[in-house]
Design goal:
The complex is a heterodimer of chains A (270) and B (698).
Chain A: E1 10-11, H1 25-34, E2 39-42, H2 49-60, E3 64-68, H3 75-79, E4 80-85, E5 88-93, H4 95-102, E6 105-109, H5 116-119, H6 123-126, E7 131-134, E8 139-142, E9 148-153, H7 166-169, E10 173-176, H8 182-193, H9 197-211, H10 224-235, H11 240-252, H12 256-269
Parallel strand pairs in A: 2-9, 2-10, 3-6, 6-9
Antiparallel strand pairs in A: 1-3, 4-5, 7-8
Chain B: H1 9-19, H2 31-37, H3 42-58, H4 60-76, H5 79-96, H6 98-106, H7 108-120, E1 122-123, H8 124-139, E2 144-147, E3 152-153, E4 157-160, E5 163-164, H9 170-189, H10 200-206, H11 211-233, H12 235-243, H13 252-262, H14 268-277, H15 295-322, E6 336-338, E7 350-352, E8 355-357, H16 361-374, E9 412-418, E10 423-435, H17 443-450, H18 452-466, E11 469-475, E12 480-481, H19 483-494, E13 504-509, E14 514-521, H20 529-548, E15 551-559, E16 565-571, H21 579-586, H22 596-608, E17 614-621, H23 633-649, E18 652-659, H24 667-670, E19 675-679, H25 685-696
Helix pairs in contact in B: 1-2, 2-4, 3-4, 4-5, 4-6, 5-6, 8-9, 10-11, 10-15, 11-12, 11-14, 15-16, 18-20, 18-25, 20-25, 22-23
The chains are: A alpha/beta (270), B alpha/beta (698).
Bound molecules: adenosine-5'-triphosphate and magnesium ion.
């Protein structure tokens, strides 16, 4: 058993998380929520999916339970398991069951990373039955109206082994995320770091350059998250090139030629 | 003797007398040599003595000459270069005898200069890969790097010298490469060659009294403008440019024009105005990175690309239109338009009936490229292609297809999809399996040598894939106690039920259980580079797959007409990767046409018979399906698409790799059921294909 695997953190967000909408995703999510339809967030890493969920949880005033899925995540890690306490066994809800009881929003991040058999436990929750059967206790949890399920998925990775099954994906309303437009992204980077408009604009330009390399040796270009990291380093006094090298180039690749090219780019921009 | 104190001339002379005895006489002493060597540091003296002793064993006379030149050599060169000099001398001695060797020793100055140049020279081969990435990142549109005597660009390719050694250090020569590449990129990015008039520069020069001078003048002025653009957009790069070149202040007549060219609103028009105004003035010294201009080459490349991109965009729009409802009767307004934002920073947007449309990535790249040439997407580019507007195909020469009689027994018969009738033509294709004729050439070894670096890198990444661990829960025996199971069991016990017997965890390596079929295009059009790249890729793949232990098979396909479809065996699933297989890979030769559908059907049939959790068909081709008897255009595309849909129904994942330099609009449709990748640079195939495979299966 992994310590901490059961520690469920439900977060009631009281302060508005900063979120710049890219399109109509807020209205779409609210629509899905009202109609009790689960939501699938698609998009590359670091483009604001988690932030969006925090924002929506705040808007809808529901606690948010986030689970980062990994390839060893089992159904019991989600649903719950027995623990021994003082010679007795007690049942402890996993994050999913916890969110259902609470009427919160459960966000399963990177769902395709989880083992295939794990994905199936969300099926009855994700269609109009809206129930979570707990096999081990024989209980069937029925989700209250406030409960919502959201999952995220990055379609960029082409592995045939990690494709989301049709029977899973067709239960969801899909919201597509991408890196924000240049103006928006500049505003985000500036807001998150306080680096100032001019440098934020350069970082955004830098990101666009790395995104041009996608498919030519880079799996992904620099995400908004990486830009925010670099900007924060600069605000704390680190030189622009060094910040880009550490926060962006090295985070993107280990390939020496690619690193050299990316470092040449930041050296050219700053 | 003190270990660090330099030896005195007398001490050296004593030592030399003994060592060089056979070469010395009363009139020829080691005095001079000893004096010159006494001026060296002790470690240099030891180095020289070491080598004198060695050379003397070969030839005392040569050693005597070496002793006399050694001090000079060591003053000019570091020890490892000096060592190369000695070894070269010995080589000359072995091959040509004493006197040429003595001459080689005496040429120490030239040798040292050559070594120094080698040490500071930078070759395109080493910087090319990084520069290519750099350029691609700058503009999104790939600029192909090629070797050329002088640096210039035709807007599609960028030519750079094979090596640069003109600067005193390696570091500066590297900077010079980057500066040249960036400057040429700037020509393509900041509008030196507007697509609206591809022949502009060529005509401008030709119509002048002195075309060469006109070109030089334009180039000098344009370089002022471009450098200013770079200073604004890429200040770091601009600092590097400045560091390479001490720029004299502009001549009087140039001053006001310089200022205008450096202003943010200057365009190439400003440059043409300046060129007219300053005609006759002496042209200032070239900036070291500016290269040359070739208006003629630009005109050709630009016109060709624009025609091709226009057709590609129109065809893509036609495809996009296919899914839309038709407009109300009588409304014949244009339906596509482009967002009018004139900023290079944002991607161009595509509007449909005034609404923003998320275009596929390839269409966006196309629009970006068009805007780079024209500043905007002209309305006439936004008219979808009409029906049957496929790019005209080059007529293939008629071959004697039907010669001989065809025995269909022993052959496989396959249906083919006729999209016009919307059903299959029954048993339409006759397919035979034949062996590739093995070739005994050192191709495999050469490939492994050529890609030694890549091959080790691949090996590492593939090794990492192999070692996935998995934990099996609730086992009867195992490495650890399964606490989950135990606790559940405990509660079962308490409630009066039985203790289950699976209470352990077991670690095991997850067997990958993947079977992959590679289907390789052996059509005539692969002749040359593509065929080489295919074979090289197969070699690297096999090496990598051997590490993974995935089951794999390789078959080639080609043929001519539906009556003679051929599948070439290279490696069967149950065959080890052995000498025979390597010889067959070597022997893969271009054959006839590309009838893809039947090949996919045949190989999928084979793949279906293999027990594996994941089945993968990877096709490798150089473009459009094509056969002699009408299997071209939409017919071939639709049949290929259909065959891939069939594969999908059978639980086979198909992935198609197309080696093609043109952005083809039909690919997404044809490969509908499959994922695909388009590779526009054959040289990258070996790298790409292994990369793709890794992604597909991890
Ligand atoms: N639209 C946005 N509004 C505000 N901040 C944003 C937005 N998009 C990105 N960010 C910034 O980018 C960072 C990364 O975003 P986030 O963590 O939400 O990415 P993600 O899509 O969840 O990535 P992953 O798939 O890797 O989990 C945020 O912390 C935030 O600083
Ligand atoms: Mg996230």
């Amino acid at each position: 058993m992994k310590p901490g695997a059961m520690r469920t953190e439900a977060l009631l967000i009281t302060k508005e998380p900063y979120y710049e909408p890219q399109g109509e995703e807020i209205a779409l999510f609210e629509g899905a929520y009202r109609n009790k339809i689960p939501v699938l967030l698609k998009g590359p890493t670091g483009c604001g999916k988690t932030r969006f969920m925090e924002h929506m949880a705040w808007r809808l005033k529901r606690p948010l339970v986030t689970v980062s899925c990994h390839d060893d995540l089992t159904a019991s890690d989600l649903v719950g398991r027995y623990l021994i306490t003082a010679g007795d066994t007690v049942w402890i809800d996993g994050p999913l069951a916890h969110a259902v009881r609470l009427g919160g929003i459960c966000y399963l991040d990177e769902i395709v990373e989880a083992r295939k058999d794990t994905t199936v436990v969300i099926h009855p929750l994700a269609d109009d039955r809206r129930v979570l059967p707990i096999e081990k206790t024989g209980e069937v949890l029925s989700a209250p109206g406030e409960f919502a399920l959201a999952i995220s998925y990055n379609p960029g990775y082409q592995s045939v082994l990690k494709d989301l099954k049709q029977s899973t994906r067709q239960r969801f309303i899909a919201l597509e995320f991408d890196y924000p437009s240049a103006d928006l992204e500049r505003r985000i980077v500036d807001h998150e770091s306080g680096v100032g408009d001019e440098i934020a604009a350069k970082l955004v330009r830098f990101a666009a350059m790395t995104r041009n390399l996608k498919g030519s040796g880079l799996e992904e270009g620099a995400s908004t998250r990486l830009l925010v990291h670099a900007a924060k380093l600069m605000v704390s006094g680190i030189g622009a090139r060094t910040a880009c090298q550490g926060a962006i180039a090295q985070a993107l690749t280990d390939d020496p030629e690619m690193l050299a090219a990316i470092n040449e780019l930041s050296a050219s921009l700053f | 003797m003190d270990e660090f104190r330099p030896l005195t001339a007398a001490e050296i002379e004593d030592w030399l007398d003994e060592e060089l005895d056979a070469a010395l006489s009363l009139r020829r002493t080691s005095r001079q040599a000893a004096i010159s060597l006494s001026s060296l540091a002790r470690d240099q003296q030891d180095f020289v003595r070491h080598w004198i002793a060695i050379v003397a064993k070969t030839n005392p006379e040569l050693a005597f000459h070496f002793a006399n030149h050694a001090a000079d050599g060591l003053k000019r060169m570091a020890k490892d270069d000096a060592e190369a000099w000695i070894i070269q001398t010995m080589d000359v001695y072995d091959k040509m005898g004493l006197y040429p060797a003595i001459a080689a020793l005496a040429a120490v100055e030239a040798f040292a200069a050559g070594r120094a140049e080698r040490a500071r020279a930078v070759a395109l081969e080493e910087v090319g890969p990084v520069l290519e990435l750099f350029l691609q990142a700058l503009s999104g549109r790939p600029l192909r790097l090629e070797r050329g005597a002088r640096p210039f660009t035709d807007t599609t390719r960028l030519f750079l010298p094979a090596s640069i050694a003109e600067r005193p250090t390696r570091e500066e020569n590297l900077r010079l490469y980057k500066a040249m590449a960036a400057h040429l990129w700037a020509q393509t990015w900041f509008g030196t060659f507007p697509g609206s008039d591809p022949e502009r520069l060529m005509n401008h020069c030709r119509s002048s009294r002195d075309p060469d001078y006109a070109c030089e003048l334009f180039h000098a002025l344009e370089t002022i403008r471009l450098d200013a653009c770079l200073a604004r957009e890429l200040p770091g790069l601009y600092r590097e440019l400045r560091a390479l070149h001490n720029r004299p202040p502009p001549a009087r007549a140039w001053q006001s024009w310089s200022a205008r060219l450096e202003a943010a609103d200057a365009t190439v028009e400003t440059t043409y105005e300046a060129a007219a105004a300053l005609y006759g003035e002496p042209v200032p010294e070239r900036r070291p990175y500016q290269g040359i201009l070739d208006g003629g080459a630009v005109a050709v490349a630009l016109a060709e690309r624009m025609a091709q991109e226009r057709a590609a965009l129109q065809a893509a729009l036609k495809k996009l239109l296919a899914g839309k409802a038709s407009p109300p009767e009588g409304d014949d307004r244009r339906r596509f338009s482009a967002g009018k934002e004139r900023s290079d920073r944002n991607e161009p947007t595509l509007l449909f009936d005034g609404e923003r449309l998320t275009a596929p990535a390839d269409v966006r790249a196309l629009m970006q490229s068009i805007r780079q040439d024209l500043g905007e997407i002209p309305d006439e580019y936004l008219v979808p292609a009409g029906d049957g507007d496929y790019a005209p195909e080059s007529p293939k020469k008629v071959e004697d297809v039907w010669k001989g009689t065809y025995h269909e027994d022993g052959a496989f018969l396959y249906n083919e999809w006729d999209y016009k009738r919307q059903h299959y033509r029954k048993e339409w294709c006759v397919l035979r399996e034949v062996d590739v004729h093995p070739a005994e050439e050192p191709f495999v070894a050469e490939t492994l040598r050529k890609y030694a670096g890549l091959s080790t890198r691949l090996r590492k990444t593939f090794e990492a894939l192999r070692g996935e661990n998995a934990v099996q829960r609730r086992q009867k025996h195992g490495d650890e106690v399964d606490f989950d199971a135990l606790i559940q069991g405990f509660s079962d016990l308490r409630s009066g039920r039985e203790l289950p017997d699976g209470l352990f965890l077991r670690h095991r390596r997850l067997a990958r259980n993947i079977a992959v079929m590679f289907m390789v295009d052996m059509s005539g059009s692969t002749k040359g580079w593509i065929n080489d790249a295919e074979r090289e890729s197969l070699v690297l793949l096999c090496e990598a797959l051997e590490i993974l232990g995935d089951r794999y098979a390789i078959y080639g396909f080609s043929g001519i007409t539906r009556k003679r479809c051929e599948i070439y065996r290279v490696k069967r699933f149950d065959e080890p990767y052995n000498r025979e297989v390597r010889a067959r890979i070597t022997g893969i030769k271009p054959q006839d046409y590309t009838r893809m559908g039947v090949a996919i059907r045949h190989l999928c049939g084979m793949l279906k018979g293999v027990e594996a959790r994941t089945k993968l068909l990877v096709t490798l081709s150089d473009g459009k399906p094509d056969d002699y008897d009408g299997y071209r255009g939409e017919y071939g595309i639709e049949d290929t698409r259909q065959a891939l849909l069939e594969a999908k129904r059978d639980g086979i994942h198909a992935f198609c790799i197309t080696i093609d330099t043109d952005a083809r609009d039909y690919l997404p449709h044809m490969y509908g059921a499959a994922n695909y990748a388009q590779i526009d640079d054959v040289r990258k195939l070996p790298l790409k294909i292994s990369d793709i495979y890794r992604h597909l299966t991890s």
